Amino acid sequence: MTSNPLAKHKLTILYGVSLALLLFLLKWLELKLMIVNHAYEAYIGAVAIFFTTLGIWISLKLTKPKTVFVEKAVYINQSPGFTINQTELDKLGLSKRELEVLQLMAEGLSNQEISERLFVSLNTIKTHSAKLFEKMEVKRRTQAVEMAKRLCIIP
Amino acid sequence: MTSNPLAKHKLTILYGVSLALLLFLLKWLELKLMIVNHAYEAYIGAVAIFFTTLGIWISLKLTKPKTVFVEKAVYINQSPGFTINQTELDKLGLSKRELEVLQLMAEGLSNQEISERLFVSLNTIKTHSAKLFEKMEVKRRTQAVEMAKRLCIIP
DNA sequence: ACCGGGCTCATACTTTAGGATGATTTTGAA
DNA sequence: TTCAAAATCATCCTAAAGTATGAGCCCGGT
């Protein structure tokens, strides 16, 4: 998202600093325990436990969540209380005017009638409908209407 | 799944045995390196690297995959409990074939496609559709489909 | 056997829809 | 302000839809 190079490598820098601090801690521990030589095994154990934990933590942080797509069938009851499916509408990326044309198409109007209704020329409606079909990936107005109704874009 | 208590803790036991073997290895390495005291830091480093790797491996093995459930709606056009309005259908006086053509029209098929679907010629479909429009008192196929849906003649 | 309706198909024609492309203006967001 | 998308309109052309009319075939009812 942010193009800031510092922010981009924030995590890497953090890891580096953490490791540096860790090395200091280890050195200190080492010197301290050198005196009490009996605690040598304990030192090794502590190192082992610490790095095991570190490894676990790192992998937990770095593993990307595995996404599982679950298809869920949804029956749409469109007659009582129709609400337009904004999600599907956005997915198609239709413009305001294109949607208007689509709605009038669904009412069974011809391009000529639509152009008169919207006070624009017939050619404009043709352009709109062409872009409409392209976006909806259909070939005919009847298909567009059928699809729009199935996706609950129009009542 | 299996109710066998041994199998149930097979993984735990395996880890335990592995750790025991590991401790032996460490002890051996320790003794070996004690002679060459200069390699002490290298030993610590090896332990650190090994246990980091071990930690990563363990967490990768043990963590359940993080699943992100994405609901993907599959829209089913046939609303459950659609009943054709026989009264309105009779009122129109459509023949069996004309109704078939109307249904395929509603699916967005062209006359050509309908003719191929019904194994008849394009001209036949044109004749049917013309009679259809006359009986339904509409001018275009889009109007016919809109009317048919509104009258619950087709889903 | 005869008749009518449904189904089929054909020809000829007009209208509408749709595709491809280019241009201009408006407008909304960065 | 500047830039991209949206909206507008045009021309040229092809494909599809729709109209009109006529004709042959089959099936069920009278």
Keywords, separated by commas or semicolons:
155 residues, 6% strand, 2 domains, Sig_transdc_resp-reg_C-effctor (chains A, B), 66% helix, DNA-binding, 8 helices, homodimer, disordered N terminus, transmembrane helix (chains A, B), Arc Repressor Mutant, subunit A, mainly alpha
Work out the helicity level of chain A: 55-70%
Greatest contact between two chains = A-B, 53 and 50 residues
Shape of chain A: rod-shaped
Tell me the CATH superfamily of the largest domain in chain A: Winged helix-like DNA-binding domain superfamily/Winged helix DNA-binding domain
User: How many distinct domains of chain A?
Assistant: 2
CATH uppermost class of the largest domain in chain A = Mainly Alpha
What are the segments of chain A in which pLDDT stays under 50 over at least 5 consecutive residues? 1-17, 64-79
Oligomer: homodimer
